[in-house]
Amino acid sequence: MIREARESDLDDIFEIEVGTIDPWTFGILEADFKNESTNYFVYEVDNKVVGYISLLNLASEIHINNIAVDIDYRNKGIATSLVEYGIEYFKDKDILGYTLEVREDNYPAIKVYEKSGFKAVGIRKNYYSNNKSAIIMWKYIGE
Ligand SMILES: CC(C)(COP(=O)(O)OP(=O)(O)OC[C@H]1O[C@@H](n2cnc3c(N)ncnc32)[C@H](O)[C@@H]1OP(=O)(O)O)[C@@H](O)C(=O)NCCC(=O)NCCS
Questions:
Q1: Number of structural domains, the chain?
Q2: Is the pLDDT of residue 50 over 80?
Q3: Would the pTM of this model clear 0.85, i.e. be above it?
Q4: What domain range includes position 72?
Q5: What are 63-103's pLDDT values in tens digits?
Q6: What CATH number did the domain enclosing 33 receive?
Q7: Contact yes or no for 56/36 (Cβ under 8 A)
Q8: Mean pLDDT for the chain?
C-alpha cells in the first residue's frame, strides 16, 4: 500500500536511506521532508515502511529527488509502483513533466525509470563521487 508519509515515518525512511550509496543525513532528510515544495510517499508491507519516494514540485516540473527500497524488498516492483504513483499524483497539474538525475552505473534505478517511460536526455559529468556522471532523464506529459 502506498500512502503520503508522515513525520513519524522519518526514522523508518532514514533506516532505508542508510542502506543506499551516499545516503542523506537525518538532518537533510528532515529538512527536505519539511520543505513545502516536497511530497513524500511510503510503501508499506504489513504496516512496515519498506520504501519511499520524494518529489520536489518546481512549478512546471516535478523532480524525483530520491527513491529507495529496503534491501530485503528489492526487485519486487516496489520502486516502480512508487514512481507510477508519483506520476499519477501530479498528472493533472499544469506541468511539463517529470525529471531526475541518476548515477550512470545505477542500473536498477535506470531500469525503474525506463519502465515508467523516462528517457535519457543528457549527462552531468562527474556529478557524483568517484567521477561518476549523472544521467538526466525526463518524462514529458503526454509521452
Ligand atoms: C533503485 C531501487 C529504488 C529499485 O527498487 P526496486 O523496488 O528493487 O525496483 P523494482 O523492483 O521496481 O525494479 C527493479 C528493476 O531493476 C532490475 N535490476 C535489478 N538489478 C539490476 C542490474 N544490476 N542491472 C539491470 N537491471 C537490474 C530488476 O530486474 C527490475 O526490473 P524488472 O522488473 O524488469 O525485472 C533500489 O535498488 C534501491 O533502493 N537502491 C538504492 C537507492 C537508489 O539507488 N535510489 C535511486 C536514486 S536515483
A1: 1
A2: yes
A3: yes
A4: 2-140
A5: 999 999 999 999 999 999 999 999 999 998 889 999 999 99
A6: 3.40.630.30
A7: no
A8: 95
**78 CA: nearest ligand 1 atom:** 7
70, 19 in Cβ contact below 8 A? yes
Ligand 1 pocket, mutate which of 22, 43, 71, 75 (most atoms under 8 A from CB): 75
CA distance 5 to 78: 16
Contact residues of ligand 1, CB 6 A cut-off: 20, 67-69, 74-80, 102, 106-109, 111-112
List, for residues 101-114, the tens digit of each pLDDT value.
Answer: 999 999 999 999 99
Mapping DSSP to helix (H, G, I), strand (E, B) and coil, where does residue 2 land? strand
| Test site for ligand 1: of 65, 105, 111, 132, most ligand atoms within 8 A of the Cβ | 111
Q: What is the helix (H) or strand (E) element at residue 113, kind and residue range?
A: helix 107-115
Closest C-alpha to ligand 1, atom 40: 68
